[in-house]
Amino acid sequence: MTTLWSGLADGALYALVGVGYNIVLLASGVFNFANAQLIMLGTYLAYFAAVTLKLPLAPTVLIGAAAVALVGVVEERLAIRPLMGRRDSHATLITSVGVAVAIDGIVLRIWGSQPKAIPAPLSTKPLNLLGGTIEPTSLLLIVLVIVVGVGLHILSKKTMIGLGSLASAEDREAAMARGVNVRALAIGAFALAGLIAGAFGVVVGSGTYANPGLGDNLALFGFVAIAIGGSGSQIGSLIGGFATGIIYAEVSRYTNADWPQIVVFALFLLILLTRPRGLFGGAVERQV
Amino acid sequence: MAATTAVSPPALPWLRSARPLMMLGLGVVVLVAPWLGLGDYWSRQFILIAILALVVSGLNISLGYAGELALGQVALYAVGAYVTGYLAVSHGVTDILLCLLAAIGGAIVVGFVSGIPGLRLGGWSLAMVTFFLVIIIPNVLDLLSSQTGGALGLSGIPVPTIFGAQLVGDGFYVFVIAVTIIWFAIFRNLIGSSHGDAFLVLKQSPILAATLGISVYRLKLLAYVVGAIPAGIAGVLFAFLSAYISPSSFAFALAFTILTASVVGGSQSIYGAIFGAAILQLGPERIASFQNYSLIVYGAFLVVAGLVFSDGIAGLVRSGLSQARRRGWLSSAAPIDTVGPMAESDVALATAGDDTAAVIGDLAGEALTVTELRKDFGGLTAVDDVTLEAVPGEVTALIGPNGSGKTTLLNLVCGFYKPTSGSVRLGPVELGGLAPYRSARAGVARTFQTPLIPKGMRARAFVATGRYVSHRVSMPASILRLPSFWRGSRASDAEALRLLALLGIARVADSEVASLPLGTRRLVEVARALAAEPKVFLFDEVGSGLDEEDIHRLEEAIELIRRAGGTVVLVEHNFPLVLKIADRIHVLSQGALIASGTPAEIQANRRVLEEYTGSSETVDTIEELERSDAVPGPPPAEPR
Amino acid sequence: MMLTVDSVAGGYGDIQVLWGVSASVEAGHVTVILGRNGAGKTSLLNAVAGFLPTVRSGQVRLGDLELGRLTPFERVRAGLAYVQEGKRVFHRRTVEENLLLGGYTVKRPFLRRGQRLQTALDRAYERFPILADRRKMVAGRLSGGQQQMLAIAQALIPEPTAVMLDEPSAGLAPAIAKEVFAMVEGLKREGLAVLLVEQVVDNALAIADDVIVIEAGRVAASGPVSDFDDTAMVRDLYLGRGSAGLRQAPDPSDR
Prior knowledge:
The complex is a heterotrimer. Chain A is mainly alpha-helical.
């Protein structure tokens, strides 16, 4: 059971990345490879605020949220928007990878390659839950990710912005003809993805440490999460992320350290071969 | 290559430029550099550049030509290196040629394993699968640690040998450079062949590729796997160069370096890989403390490159050259902006009386039989139990107002839609449900209302792509420039020129198709369709937007096809054209067939005019309309 | 409010499709745009709506407001409605969601679907009873005629002052097409300025106040509908002018 909890905690991370991918995919049809880097940036900012500046929890979260939201907006403006009109859709592949690499580089330059510890927001005393142990912060992470995922799902169905976003993903021009401000949606989506990434900095970072390899690792597993769940589906991302995390944890338990990643890779290949659209079909099939 | 230019006919465009000779010259200079005073340090740099260039060129094939982002060159590179390391250390195999063979084999296998699932979905799947491949390198190496040394790496790789002789120092250097030169020659030969043209088409329009009979999935897979080969080769060279390999040499920071080198040098270029590799190998070395900023710089490079110059340095050179040509500083192929009336010779060629069949060849058209074909989209019935037939040697026109289902019907024949029920047969072959490329291979040739034309292709090359599948020259033959390659390309080129002349547009053979006026582009597309020697021609509103001259030329072209026994299906909106050249007309409305007959019958049919124009009170049929003495409308608006 | 197009020239990147086209329609009037396929009718509507990538010259005005600088979604807010060709509703969304999307620009509290929108929805259901019966149905499952009705209903939700329709009767059964035309005529009576692109000449002329004929991206003829003879019009449009060629052969260098 402890393994299960650990799997859920890791899975929550993957689901979080997937959720971020989906937010941007749904609103602008773009796959933002750098989303995981935004989450990594969030952990570093949490380190900066909580450890370097010794700020309490609330300002740390706020600073993280605001700063990474800003980074998201800048990314959209510089690396994505200029390409929106173009026929050739390859360019955003290159530029979003470029942004990811640049963020990796910036983080390395400023903070070096040693992982940085971030104080946990809740006590570190493990809880006994359903037959297994789990750290309170990890439990918090799981709960928060579920809340965010479900919340976004509801928002997209119940609000006009959410509806506009779904419409825009289906037919951008028709959405514009109905008055949907697709440009604002795109900017908003990048800002929201950044905001969430930044706000989660403390909760994520206390478990993973702020480390420069975090981005690349999460990028991949987050993609696996949406491959399983179906691109564009927040609920799918949750399911996909948790499933991946659990599989990884269970495999680690029974084999040595090398197998979990290989097993997840095999699972990934299997999904692509047998059910490429994932569980809940692609809302945005073409891009992903 | 000097020998080949002597043999080749000067007309083939891809040999016209002096670039390959220049690069070969450069290669030879680099090859003999040690004897020209090249020191050890620079020797090593050149070897490293060569190795990186090999890996980058593999990415260029995938990304620049087939249009698929692959991030896994590093993994294939690692396969090459570790296969070598394993063979050399555990089995004492030092023969470099054997290692190359084994490494290439390994790279191809891994390429297939990652490419097959990765290419199933478009977009990011391949990138992510290959990225994953790189991430699990340390895991796989660790699992196989008895063979690979795991995280500690594999040391003590012996000196390579070739036919028993040791390859050290200058010898090794020469071997590396020679292998690199050979690979780039192969690369160049591949791109400068019909396969390269097919890649271009694939990258810019998968729909057009399918219409040419190309299986998009298979060609992309082939491109990706071919791109794995140089990475494997590079791995072998690297393993022997450093005598020690470990997982840290194959980290994914390298993957980004490779991507940056590809983009900087120009992904869609052959030699750009070398320039990109040189810049990325030498640049960091020159600038102290670059390491700290390397990723930031690469990232910025990628963003800027993606935004500004999508073709890297090679692209800048190319556009610089075409700018220079446009300004008359360089001579160029005759630019054709307007196409005048057919030249005497063209007319003679095109309309040589009863010899037309001989001129155009017997087309062996087959009957296209549509039986109770139906296509529903949810609640919308786009094609409603339509039955009709198009017969060889006849022009069959499909007309109807917008939204009547004409284009849907065409798409059903081509395979872009699957029928809900009913059948479409071409001769004995059932087309319904076939994938578009299979439909094309069964003999369906189609033109598009908005011509799909890839950029950067001359008319003669574009027309020749029609023969890519039907007169296929194998890749090995193209790479090695075997006689079958020369025969095949010469024949395809000659055929392309002949068809262009037939349609009266021989003069545009060397012009870039994308820059031609619409009417001429349409005719080029017709030539392309003819080149495929199809069993049925589907012309989708081919007359739309053309002026009288172009339409006249089009009419003649269609007439030629008809007389040569081809089956022509014309989906048209232009009544006069249809009435003039169709043998049989079928009228669609709201997906259903409402009238069929000869032009005379259709003109006299009451329903037809009604369908198009709403009920007409004074005139009921097209025939009456043509004969009507109605007062013409008001004078044209004053031009402002 | 009057919708005015003043010598608009432009196209798609390098390809120019409009060469100085002018048109106008007053409130409570219908201007019909006729022409062959490929003549530039849709491109003209696209230019007005803001979807034409390259506009080299000319102006588009709604009342006094110049639309040129506005994005397509801003033009909707300004009171312009565009019913594109091909029944472009959102196939994956329900009828009700489609109508709500039509009301995207209507001011409302941030999250909830406000009172104003509910009224507009009710009005739409009243006017289009077919849609009322199928509120929760996914739009992709509607028949062609129903989808067209939905597309028009969508466009009308924000109470626009000018409406542009691109071949609304295409592919529809005559009875349904007649309903569509009746509806368009109704819009005219409500005081909207209606710009209608059509191929079915007679039905269009029956409700038109003014007619514009587009040929190769230019205005070939224009004037009040009374100036136009149905029969000659149909003949010109569909049968061409025979061997005489076009009235104004386009200059090859223009292309």
